[in-house]
Amino acid sequence: MSVLAFDLGASSGRAVLGLLRDSRIEIREVHRFSNNPVFAGEHMHWDILRILHEMKQGLLRTKQAGDKVSSVGIDSWAVDFGILGRDGELLGNPYHYRDTQTNGVMEEVLNTITAEHIFQKTGIQFLPFNTIYQLAALKKRDSYLLREGAHLLMIPDLLRYFLTGEKQHEFTNATTTQLFNPVMKDWDRELIKQIGIPEEWFGSIAQPGTEAGMLRSEVTKELGILPLPFIAVAEHDTGSAIAAVPATDGPFAYLSCGTWSLMGTEVKAPIINEQTLSSNFTNEGGVGHTYRLLKNIMGLWIFQETIREWEREGHDVNYDRLLHLAEQAVPFQHFIDPDHSTFLPAGNMTSRIQEYCIKTNQRPPQTQGEIIRCILESLVMKYRYVYELTEQVSEQSFGGLHMVGGGIHNQLLCKWTASALGKPVYAGPVEASAIGNIIVQWINEGVFKSLKEARKAVKESFPVLTYEPENAEAWKEAYQGYVKYTNLAAYV
Ligand code: LRH
């Protein structure tokens, strides 16, 4: 039976129908909308009611197209949340993880609770915007949310609550809070208390692939549709994306490629040791009791922000033209570490890139081609670094890299990734997070018996392009330059 996936990204959301024809998976987008964060006063928020409205449009369009669906699942970006009051009403607008409220907060928390302690308990990487530090930021500001709040729900949980009335957390997203203990398989209540957050905010956690509420009667009446069950899918988009990697044998390396680049491998249990701590790897919960041993890489964010900046300034930002200019620019002239904290917030990327180069004794890129080349080359060099680190920390070696997600539309990026790694890249599917959302609903229905069987169906249903390395020796040599300049950056 067809199912409906809501796949919400940091800049756009979509409602995607999953259909099965002779055991091949087909997907059809029924609705797409932009997701624009809003600055209100001092802070950057998600326009959560707008997202809810658009999801309702998705339900309506599904009905209007005459499509019958047996269930619905929601996935979105991780770490962000809303707080409900005692009467079940949402208090305030959820904060965007790129909001400045968390500036310096992680460092403050780590002065009172050691990184070793937090990592030992959670196995989660240290990112300044993790839920734990957002909550510590609320505490620091003595936010009214702490006095009035009664329940915390992550973004997809919150939207599911609006649509079903049920308050339930979901496992994959819960792990990204850095407040979930994978050994206890529950919230780490001691850590929650240490941060000073009411532990009653955290309730039961559903595993992906289990039922999690029915469309509430107010919504069925409003839209004139029949009640529908909601399935807790891998509600963390990266969890859904990796569920849809078409790898069917042996350990594999993956890169979920969008605004963020998430690179790593799948493991059966979290790997929590000195090496994963010092190299800041994470162990995020996945489908079928798996974990994603991965690292966040800043991804296409710098590229996207640069283009938005040029667009605001009235420059020609034709995508194909810019990539062509980048390809024509002289290789290996300027390197940045995409994960340097200077590149995390929104705004003036061009000058930040130039400043970075000046501070690390490099000639700053000037032309559009040089700037785009610098961004993409630095990104794929970082891929090489994390790929090799993943092999080390997981004590495995991989024969290539599976790339999934919208970023693989950028063929130059795929091509350069293969060259920088000196390994083939298998690119596809593009809509991995929506497909992962869909297959978990089908696992719940019994259409697929296991994740392995579902991945086989993905492999047989969607095209995968192979990119072979080119000039691998030149890339290998240039990698030394990348290492030199990004090491220098550690001191600026
Ligand atoms: C990607 C993603 C990633 C998180 C970030 C906040 O969309 O979910 O896995 O680290 O957003």
TrEMBL record:
Segments crossing the lipid bilayer: none
GO molecular function, one term: transferase activity
Domain Carbohydrate kinase FGGY C-terminal, first and last residues per copy: 253-442
Record keyword Kinase present: yes
EC number assigned by the record: 2.7.1.-
Domain Carbohydrate kinase FGGY N-terminal: 3-241
Keyword annotations from UniProtKB, A to Z: ATP-binding, Disulfide bond, Kinase, Nucleotide-binding, Rhamnose metabolism, Transferase
Enzyme class: transferase
A Pfam family that the UniProt record links to this protein: FGGY_C
Family statement drawn from the similarity comment of this UniProt entry: Belongs to the FGGY kinase family.
Name of the protein this chain belongs to: Rhamnulokinase family protein
